[in-house]
Amino acid sequence: MLMSVALLGPIAAVVGADVGHTYSTLFLTSFGSPFGIGVLLIYSIPLVLVGLAVAVPYRAGLFNIGGDGQLLMGAFTAMVVGVSLPGLGAIPGGVLILLLAGAAAGAFFGAIAGALRAWRGVSEIVTTIMLNFVALFLVRYFVAGPLRDPGLTFNASPAVDPGLRIAKLAGNAGIPMSALVAILAAAVVAWWAYRTRSGWAHRMLGTAPSFARAKGVRVEVGYFLALVAGGALGGLAGATELVGNQYRIGFGFSPGWGIDAVAIALLARGNPLAVVPIAVFFAFLRNGGGALQSAVGIPGTVVTLLAAVPVLIVAAVTGWRTYRKFRGEGG
Amino acid sequence: MEFLFGAMVVLGVPLLFAALGGILAERSGVLNLGLEGLLLIGAFCGALVGSSTGSVLTGVAAALAAGLLGGAVLALLTVVLRADQIVTGIAFNIAMLGLTGLLFGVLGAGAFATPSDADTRIPFLADIPALGALFSTHWIAYVGYALVVALTVVLFRTGLGVRIRASGENAEAARASGVNVLRTRFAAVVLSGGIAALGGAFMSLADVHGFGENMVDGRGYIAFAIIILGRWRPLGVAAGAALFGFAQGLDLFAQTRSFPLPLEAVQAVPYVIALATAAILGKKARPPAEEGRPLMLAG
Q1: pTM score above 0.90
Q2: Which of B86, B87, B255 should one mutate to test binding to chain A, selecting the residue with the greatest count of A CBs within 10 A?
Q3: For chain A, what are the domain ranges?
């Protein structure tokens, strides 16, 4: 990750920007003010949760590329529940119902990919990609049509009732309380992964599937549940973003978190606790990227490049080491 | 209707190139998830060079060269270094989105105003009602049609094709019978990069005549649905690309007149068909057996 930050200097120099100013802009945007920290956290929360949505199936050797679809369905379902049951806002903890509804919707999308993977042998990579498009069109139809908020000049759903939102603390600084959802989710997933028998069996599916089968683990059920759990976390990410930040769903609800999440989960090697700092780092890059354009004239997309390069290097080093080890053992 | 078929061609051709590149790599045993990034660099280099030289042909050549280079990077990572194919593809896409966006921002949109040359009408064929749209389009599309034929012949009628498919179905057996699996896969991925980048060149040089940040917008991922529908065959993916192009074309169509169904429902149909195909056929619609697995043999 230091590498990504180090790469920015030469790029800034080539583009003709002041290198020192570039770095100070990058850091101060996130850490220069309480407001910056608030924005950093807001960017981090969905990345942590979708990162977990990818990391959980990844531990079982499966790739969930469907984070964007799952989070969209999660947010959409939470919005529908929140808008159609406004009375929930008066009940303390009513917002939890929305989060659960979102997780359930994401789990349903995960279950489609999981069932196809487990019992029909269809690659979860392509099914989750396709389900992203299905979710996109479904949500687009409703927010531009039957569920469009008529009071708006653009296509978006109605906002959830203020009683069903998760607050941002301290006024302008806006420290989002929904960060607790992300931290809690990471802790629960970590506890399950490292402290329970099923977490251990789940890991076996990824590292030694034939051993797992010999040990009596039902591999098909394991694959199915891995993608259901991943989908649920993706749905939770969407619902949390809805109640904690955006409140309504427009066309650009997700800027592509599901794809970033694949990179995050790999850098974390599927470790749920490592997902948290890496997701925050990605958010730090995104947050700083927005400011670079206006401050020093470097296009903000530079941070997208910076985020991807270490992933490519880690993938190459890991692949090569695995191969050398395999050859070394005379495989 | 004429308009709709025209839109189908314009929107379907980039998907065709991407899916053709995808099956070439997959047939050799490598899942090339970098199609999105390859389309982007094709569109970017095609527009940049086409604009600065004033020639569509050099633009296409530059896109091809950039695609081959991008393919070589992917091949180095996934084939030689045995990096995970899925992660590499995704990260490659993110990197190319960042790189093209960065350079586009630095150079400014003016550097990407491409020349346009007229569509080429093929005599007689272009006069067929509706389907004539296929034969009165930009010449880059005809390269795509030719590739459908060429890839079909190479993959299924030549010894080279047997070697490519053997690498994808059973690397160990292929090697035992004298195929250099590593080299075969490397070449397949490099070429798949060049082919996919031509799809990007079609977008920037033949369709929008310029470049825009993230202009590929997920088309590289749609290609994987097309590959399933086409069952890893060039003619099949051509039909799949036409179906998806048609569904996307309805979007433009519906902007000019009223449309009786929810548009999004119609647009989602090809994806649902692809999912249903996969569900019904199950293992019969399976990809090449070695796909996605790094080569653990030395050669």
Answers
A1: yes
A2: B87
A3: 37-292
